[in-house]
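# nightly structure sweep
# worker-07 picked up a monomer target from the shared queue
# config: single-sequence mode, recycle default, output format = structure tokens
# input follows
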Amino acid sequence: MTTTIIRTTTKILAPLILVFGSYIILHGHLTPGGGFQGGAVFASGLALLIVANNKEKVKELFDKVPLSQLESLGALGFLGIGALGLMGYTFLKNVIANSGFLFGAPTPEGINPGYLNTGGTLSYLNIFVGTKVLAGLTSIVLIFFLILRRERDEW
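# output follows
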């Protein structure tokens, strides 16, 4: 049973945490952080939503979310981006940088002043790693939540 304070705080904080996790994932090639850290922050926002709601609401929310498929997509996407580098180079070579494609704008000399479009394959790798981490950690929290709620209901 959650209190009104927990539910109200969750309604305010969860969207902010999810946006901040997305920010960390997308800016991982420019600032400290990246796919793993951003995925963990994003998963903590989802964990907050899981803990603050009752079992029926959680099942309703997460029955529609294919967490195992998202985790697989993250792993396959990472391997696919890594395989792009094998076209005459090495695994994970940054072949998109300076190419003009999405996230392939020319990289500035010296310190990057914050141009998001300059990461090349690093930006894609961060997105796929973030997807894998957020799905995996959310799955773990969801399984623990459902097991603990079932044991509490049987008690």
